[in-house]
From TrEMBL:
Pfam family, one: Peptidase_S10
Molecular functions (GO terms): serine-type carboxypeptidase activity; sinapoyltransferase activity
Keywords, ordered alphabetically: Glycoprotein, Signal
Record keyword Oxidoreductase present: no
A single GO BP: proteolysis
Native organism: Cucurbita maxima (Pumpkin)
Leader peptide range in chain numbering: 1-25
Sequence similarity: Belongs to the peptidase S10 family.
Gene name for this UniProt entry: LOC111481307
Coiled coil, from the record: none
InterPro entries: AB_hydrolase_fold, Peptidase_S10
Entry superkingdom: Eukaryota
Protein's name according to its UniProt entry: Serine carboxypeptidase-like 7 isoform X5
Length: 472
């Protein structure tokens, strides 16, 4: 396991800073129009690439949306999607960004885009970044560049941010926050710490203020183990089955001892009970997501890279299985057809020949999982006074709120604001919150699922209050 402070040697930083100063110039473009959106965009959008790695063999694609408030003074933040390997397009057009896909039956034309009234870009400048390599429109120029993992992602994301700021010096003084959701719970705290440590080594200084995490995967061992207590709390399994699971499995439901026949039997009974539950939001219908690469897919990493140029013609989007309109996954379905349209790629300035078929989420089979727990990182960052916002949809079964509450409790922070409801302007309860002495705020979102896509209105209110320092 990588430990806090163990990412880089001083030699690495000297090389790294020389790279930032001498090779900061990325490629970026102002985008005024997007296929599927009627008229000019009513916000400022930039897309581009930043080269990272020893020889810039990894070209990281991003969408940058300037704040619709005051871009010169509003915070600058990132939003990483997780997966690992899910595209930044999710954040830009499905979750917290300024656009949403219009949910209507796909008819073969470019899917339509509409404005998201709850976008976080009303209060912040946001970088939506395709990371790690192979995600979205990011690509490798060499076979070596295809390597990916937790530590490597931290190094490349850190380098990306310093280089991007060197190219955009007007944002160097803006308050900076690292943000992300889901598996990015393993990336956000460690990247925040790398930025904090890197600020002592030279230009450009990042005005780091804190970090934001949504439904964060934070501790490998405990996340799956909290799914069964969560299922019991939601009455998906009976009291009797839950007690049998507890007594036979001793709290370990994931890596079950193959000789523990009783535990295996009861885990199997549990799995039958929840097999048709939508774990992303337990209130929503169970739907299949055909827009991500699985280990069984024929698409492979080499096909996404520039060095294999003979296979780099844009693919005609294949026909996906039909998905009911009422499914959250229908927006994924539309994003697939939108991102695989040549007119869209031209508008976004995606480099020809670098990406074949775009998938919302890529395979993780070659990903190196270097971290097991983010708890030490949270403790270290809080000791330095950084602000943090941790929020969870209370109907998420992928990363149950029970798990998030447990690792936060293990930090042993003193409470300064006890558990209480928080409200919208009509005095309706949107969830519950508590605030800790170490600048950490925890927020539950009532009815929310695994991503901000399922809780745009509530999370928009939460963010707009927290980011300016107002109580929820």
């Amino acid at each position: 396991m990588a430990t806090p402070g163990g990412f880089r040697s001083s030699v690495f930083f000297l090389v790294f800073l020389l790279q930032v100063v001498s090779a900061a110039a990325g490629s970026f473009w102002s985008v005024k129009y997007l296929p599927g959106f009627s008229g000019p965009l009513p916000f400022e959008l930039e897309t581009g690439y930043v080269g990272v790695g020893d020889s810039e063999e990894v070209q990281v694609f991003y969408y940058f949306v300037k704040s619709q408030g005051n871009p010169r003074t509003d915070p600058l933040m990132t939003w990483y999607i997780g997966g690992p390997g899910c595209s930044a397009l999710c954040g830009f057009a499905l979750e917290i960004g300024p656009l949403n896909f219009k949910i209507e039956a796909y008819n073969g034309s470019v899917p339509q885009l509409i404005l998201n009234p709850h976008t976080w870009t009303k209060k912040a400048n946001i970088l939506f970044i395709d990371a790690p390599v192979g995600t979205g429109f990011s690509y490798a120029q060499t076979p070596r560049g295809l390597k990916k993992g937790d530590v490597l992602q931290i190094e490349q994301n850190h380098q990306f941010l310093r280089k991007w700021l060197a190219d955009h010096p007007e944002f160097i003084r803006n308050p900076f926050y690292v943000g992300g959701g889901s598996y990015s719970g393993m990336i956000v705290p460690s990247l925040t710490q790398a930025i904090s440590e890197g600020n002592s080594h030279g230009f450009p200084i990042i005005n780091l203020q804190g970090y934001i995490e949504g439904n964060p995967f934070s501790v490998h061992k405990t996340n799956d183990n909290y799914k069964i207590p969560y299922a019991h709390r939601m009455s998906f399994i009976s009291d009797e089955l839950y007690e049998s699971l507890r007594s036979s499995c001793k709290g370990e439901y994931n890596n079950v001892d193959p000789t523990n026949v009783e535990c295996i039997k009861y885990v199997s009974a549990y799995q039958k009970c929840v097999s048709r539950i939508n774990t992303g939001n337990i209130l929503k219908p169970h739907c299949e997501d055909a827009t991500k690469v699985t280990e069984a897919a024929t698409f492979n990493d080499a096909r996404r890279s520039l060095y294999n140029a003979s296979e780099q013609q844009f693919l005609s989007p294949r026909v996906l299985p039909s998905i009911p309109l009422e499914c959250d996954e229908y927006a994924f379905y539309l994003s697939y057809y939108w991102a695989n349209d040549n007119r869209v790629r031209k508008a976004l300035h995606v480099r020809e020949g670098t990406i074949g078929e775009w998938f919302r989420c890529q395979s993780t089979k070659d990903y190196q999982y270097d971290f097991t727990s983010m708890v030490p990182y949270h403790m270290n960052l809080s000791s330095k006074g950084y602000r943090s916002l941790i929020f969870s949809g209370d109907h998420d079964m992928k990363v149950p709120i029970l798990d998030t509450e447990a690792w936060i409790k293990s930090l042993n922070y003193s409470l300064i604001d006890e558990w209480r409801p928080w409200f919208n302007e009509e005095d309706q309860v949107l969830g519950y919150t508590r605030t800790y002495a170490n600048n950490m705020t925890f927020v539950s979102i009532k009815g929310g699922g695994h991503t901000p896509q399922t809780m745009q209105h509530q999370s928009g209110i939460m963010f707009s209050r927290w980011i300016v320092g107002n109580p929820l």
